[in-house]
Amino acid sequence: MTTETRDHAAIDQTVTTRKEMSGLQAIVRTQPFWVLVSILAIGAVMSVVSDVFMTDRNMFNVTRNFAFFGIMALGMTAVIVTAGIDLSVGSLMGLAGIVTGLVMQAGFGVGLGFLACIGMAGLVGLINGVLIAYLRLAPFVVTLGMLAITRSVAMVASNNKMIYEFGPDQELFEWIGGESVIGVPNPVWVLIILTIVFFLAFRYTTWGRWVFAVGGNADAARLAGIPVERVIVSVYVICSMCAGLAAFLLVGWFGSVTNALGLTYELNVIAASVIGGANLMGGVAYALGAPIGAALMELIRNSLLLAGIDALWQQFFVGLFIILAVLLERIRNRSGP
Amino acid sequence: MTLLSLKGVSKNFGAIQALTGIDLEIQPGEAVGLMGDNGAGKSTLVKIIAGNFPQSGGSIEIEGRQVQFHKPIDARHAGIEVVYQDLALCDNLTAAANVFLGREIKRRIGPFSYLDHQAMYDRAGELFVELKSETRPRDYVRQMSGGQRQAVAIARTRLSDPKLVLMDEPTAAISVRQVAEVLDLIKRLKETNHAVILISHRMPDVFEVCDRVAVLRRGRKVADKAIAQSTPEEVTGLITGAIEAA
């Protein structure tokens, strides 16, 4: 009897102190890791196939191009964790871009332009979030409606005209979106910083823990005393603000804005999140997955271009990778314990 | 002093009368078995005490003070912890994360506070050792057996020092050895002067750990007596209605 109790205690002791797997094993099991591997593989092939691929100029363009999608995909990832979706981000870019243009065209500085842009985005996110969290409407339908509304408001506000005069701070504005620091494009810096912020927020804040809890089992989260509604509102506000930030940078880079800015971007953004390992059923996602997913999509586009394959094939390969990503996840889950 | 006192508690959902005039008193260190057939009103009563929804009539007193719960958090602040029947866990989080859900351990560096994962793993590990459960704090709940999930749900209640622990079918769907462990835990709770309400279908469990048994039938309390003065046969009769009241 005594020996048996001791044995149990000994087993329990080893069991509780034992880690299930090492850190490296845990990383290898995540989807972003395998997407990163395929990025490196495609990169290796392309550097042999094309002389242009590894040039500074091409790398500069590739990283800048995916930065905008990566920034938005980070926000989208937070929404997808809660088993939600935000289809309005592309249209919202159009609205936020136009608002920025109108404010700066009227002679206000870049600071106010930025606040107006992010403020408008936050407001749209707040409306989405409140409708979804408190009125319990389906995220797909609410944000589909908002997709139409924001695009329409952007058209009305811009009077269907292009804006290319950005007032006194035009140069600074275009520098923020279009130039680089230490050889790295500014939007990429923003993406890097945001990725770190999201990574830390997901891992080390109660907000991050609660977002995942809501995605895993909203009822359990509510019983545990988590303010589920406020958590849901927060992810839609953050997702919209990310879209606003991407619009601000993109308009600065283009040096002009029309109300068509960001048209159909929502599909690419959702694709980047999903390729990066975000599970549309909620509860599973990786902060690092968003930029990695966005990078893979841009890499496919760039590679097809450089390999001389008709650009019309681009969407085919993006779609293929989305399906492969979901398939990969299913296979990993089945072989898992 | 009486820990929990229900006076004439009733609940109706529209035209359906789920509970009628329930009186129930629980003293510190006492375990009360709450029994009844499916639909007798056990879960409704538990949900009222746990603050999931308010009663339609009657009053609840804790240590002589009248309370009104609007949300589960109100009940928790009053010292009531619940182990839910469906266990209410997040499959995508680790055991430790579930134990600490909603009351995470945080550390502070200047203006920033962050989750102290190590402290939560350590504390959860201690709780599982206390429960003699082979549950690893870092494992995901998704991969766990029924008994391990039970351990996680029970460990949650041990975080605070609750006055009253409500257990809704804690021994359903777990192995024989684990049933014994859960019953041991209930005994330990009693020894430390905690009150326990055990909702169970399993007669032997109730007779092993409870001091009193209350039987509900069709939303009414038909019996409330000391275990020592009752028998499993009598309780079965009360549950089914073969015995009218005792």
Strand % of chain A is under 5%
CATH class term of chain A: Mainly Alpha
Shape of chain B: globular
What's the overall geometry of chain A? globular
Count of β-strands of chain A: 2
Distance between the termini of chain A: 33 Å
Strand order of the largest sheet of chain A: 1-2
Largest sheet of chain B: 6 strands, mixed
* Largest sheet strand order of chain B: 6-9-10-3-11-12
CATH architecture of the largest domain in chain B: 3-Layer(aba) Sandwich
What's the overall average pLDDT of chain B, rounded? Answer: 85
- Using only C-alpha atoms, the radius of gyration of chain B works out to 19 Å
Percent of residues of chain B in beta strands? 25-35%
Class of secondary structure makeup of chain A: mainly alpha
Question: What distinguishing features does this structure have?
Answer:
heterodimer, A: 337 residues, mainly alpha, ABC transporter involved in vitamin B12 uptake, BtuC, two-stranded antiparallel ribbon, 15 helices, 1% strand, disordered N terminus, B: 246 residues, alpha/beta, Rossmann fold, 2 domains, six-stranded mixed β-sheet, four-stranded antiparallel β-sheet, 8 helices
Summarize the helices and strands and which ones pair or pack.
The complex is a heterodimer of chains A (337) and B (246).
Chain A: H1 2-17, H2 23-28, H3 31-49, H4 56-81, H5 89-105, H6 110-133, H7 139-158, H8 170-178, E1 180-181, E2 184-185, H9 186-204, H10 206-216, H11 218-223, H12 228-254, H13 265-275, H14 289-306, H15 314-335
Antiparallel strand pairs in A: 1-2
Chain B: E1 4-13, E2 16-26, E3 31-36, H1 42-49, E4 57-62, E5 65-67, H2 72-77, E6 80-83, H3 95-99, E7 106-109, E8 112-115, H4 117-130, H5 146-159, E9 164-168, H6 176-191, E10 195-199, H7 203-209, E11 212-217, E12 220-226, H8 232-240
Parallel strand pairs in B: 3-10, 3-11, 6-9, 9-10
Antiparallel strand pairs in B: 1-2, 1-4, 4-5, 7-8, 11-12
